[in-house]
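User: Could you go from structure to sequence for me? I need the amino acid at each position, not a summary. Structure tokens:
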């Protein structure tokens, strides 16, 4: 995903981060073998997100493909290093309610959010900023339930969470059912 930004004129550096030796090997080989332009803009780092030291230039940080707990830990680590111009784009795979609660209580505000469906799976994508413009992140999401895909996602989430017995899941289902009326 990081490499897809390579031809954007405003992009001066791309840092690809992953703690897995195997993933880093694949990325490095991909860079060597590919026709990617401006390879000198790309750096690969074998690191956990919780270990990253950010540079002071403006940046967009993408954290995708991990559970909400892991993403929450990375955000806690990055938050003091972020400036108001930076953007954080996250796509958590699990524990989204817990992560949204953390974000709601944090210094981050919502820039935009959407949901997309790929190969039968739904993915929330949430863009955040430390700038004071924009609302707080809501506990259940707002725009993500709009439109045709939002409606489909809502039905999917009701079917998933209705089987959970904990109070947070029950409150979530009640909220989603209310939106459907
Ligand atoms: C499902 S894959 C998603 C890959 C990525 N979103 C992509 O398509 O470019 C999850 C990746 O997260 C990495 N990962 C797991 N824990 C991490 C952490 N704490 N910090 C950074 N990356 C992590 C894994 O090694 C794995 O490569």
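Assistant: Here is the amino acid at each position, in order:
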């Amino acid at each position: 995903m990081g490499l897809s930004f390579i031809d954007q004129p405003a992009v001066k550096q791309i840092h690809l981060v992953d703690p897995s030796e195997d993933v880093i090997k694949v990325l490095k080989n991909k860079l060597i073998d590919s026709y990617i332009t401006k390879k000198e803009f790309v750096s690969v780092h074998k690191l956990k997100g919780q270990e990253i030291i950010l540079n002071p230039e403006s940046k967009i940080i993408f954290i995708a493909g991990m559970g909400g707990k892991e993403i929450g830990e990375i955000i806690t680590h990055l938050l003091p290093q972020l400036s108001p111009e930076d953007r954080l784009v996250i796509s958590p795979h699990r524990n989204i309610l817990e992560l949204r609660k953390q974000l709601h209580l944090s210094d981050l505000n919502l820039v935009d959010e959407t949901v997309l469906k790929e190969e039968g799976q739904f993915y929330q994508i949430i863009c955040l900023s430390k700038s004071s413009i924009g609302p707080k992140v809501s506990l259940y999401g707002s725009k993500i339930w709009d439109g045709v895909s939002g409606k489909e996602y809502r039905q999917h989430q009701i079917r998933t969470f209705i089987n959970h017995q904990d109070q947070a899941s029950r409150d979530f289902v009640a909220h989603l059912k209310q939106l459907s009326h």
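One structural detail worth keeping in mind: Residues 48-143 form a domain with the Rossmann fold fold (CATH 3.40.50.150).
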